[in-house]
Amino acid sequence: MPTTEPAVALRGAGRRYGERAALRDVSLELAAGQTLVVFGPNGAGKTTLLRMLATLLRPHAGEVRVLGHGLPDDGYAVRGRIGFLGHEPLLYRELTGRENLHFHARLHHAAPARVEQLLEAVGMRARADDPVAELSRGMVQRLAVARAVLHEPELLLLDEPLANLDPAAVAQVDPLIGRASGHTRVLTSHDPVGGLPGADVALGLKGGRVALLAPAAEVSPEQIAELYA
Amino acid sequence: MRATVAALLRKELALELRTRESVPAMVLFTVTTYVIFHFGLDRNTIDGDLAAGVLWVTLLFAAILGINRLFVADHEQGGFDGFLLAPVDRTAMLVAKAIALLAFLGVVELAAVPAFGLLLGPSLVQALPELLVVLLAADVGIAVVGTLVAALAIQTRARDLMVPLLALPLLVPVVLGASQATAPLLEPSGAGALPGDWLSLLALYDLLFALIAYAVFDFLLED
Predict the structure, then answer these.
(1) Where along chain A do its domains lie?
(2) Interface test with A, best of B21, B85, B222 (most A CBs within 10 A)
(3) Which residues in chain A have their CB less than 8 angstroms from residue B77's CB?
(4) Of the candidates B77, B124, B66, B110, which has an alpha carbon nearest to the alpha carbon of residue A88?
(5) pLDDT in tens, B158-197
(6) What is the ipTM of this complex?
(7) Could A76 and B87 be called an inter-chain contact, meaning their C-beta atoms sit closer than 8 Å?
(8) In the CATH hierarchy, which fold is given to the domain comprising A1-76+187-229?
(9) Considering only CB atoms, which chain A residues are within 8 Å of B87?
(10) CA-to-CA distance for A63 and B146, rounded, in angstroms?
């Protein structure tokens, strides 16, 4: 029987670092197949939100449900169904791109052929045997995109996924992590003009609190810019 | 879990082969220390309790160097997050890291034990089979406790201080058991019998800390 439960649901979710509250009383729902774009100045809580949804941080308040499972108790059930692309590429610098992807493929029980398919898709086949330490930041980001989608996740958590990518690379990774990929997506952006069109829901965070939550079609770039004022 | 351990272990060995950060430093440390003992004691040969003590204290301090580096790449390059995002048993990391550290110690001892015999003189040929048993029993304990301590210390700012401060007290029984088991093997009159009670102590220690590590390791990786 098809489930109608949202892919992501937060009710009063909060997270502290010591005494400092990084997220406070965040409530939202995101249906499967939809895209949530999160805006906010540095330190607003965007990365904390993504890491909490990725099971890497425990919520300290409220309820967090991802793909029908409550976190952190059911974290094991959603790992492997999430693709996470954070600020760090999660690649070992001394290993080659191919070695890194094969390593993650083994952890996620993905077929080795998927590695070659993704190296081709992100345009990194020619440099796949170079150590990651010798690649440009854009190339590393392309490998990180390949790593994030290696196991064909249902939910993508993307923290400024297009950072360091040139227009050609953006076009290469778009079928994997863009709206056309069909994934449920939660992504962060600082671009009020470019961030809204691909999204269904827009969330603005300021000081860890929800400052804006509305259908993306109803939000103007000016409202986003106000978050940064 | 076996496939996950194999994947992690393969990655550990590949990283060490590329960076050569741990094993060469550990080998250099042990050989240099034996040279220092050679000149510091002003003796060409030592035997019995003293020889066993010098052998094991040096190997223990060399192990601390390897323990300090055990999780550095994972911590600095996002390896922890990459692992935690995967739908795998987290104990696999404990097992893989402990096996990797055990392998590093084995390679170090391939160089350190002959250097010890060469510089400080006790004849090791006759005692070698029994010595290998003691080395294995002690190395397992060092590897398990070292992995546990390294996983704890990597989360702290003072990692380099925390590893020796935590590991050395915990590893006192290993040095005690290994030295006492090794001393009769290094007697000038020739290798004596391997003391079974000290070897049993080492085996019990290994089992106890393997169970403790299994019980608490997941919590060390948790946020």
Answers:
(1) 1-76+187-229
(2) B85
(3) 88, 90-93
(4) B77
(5) 888 999 999 999 999 999 999 999 999 988 877 667 788 9
(6) 0.90
(7) yes
(8) Rossmann fold (3.40.50)
(9) 76, 79-80, 108-109
(10) 37
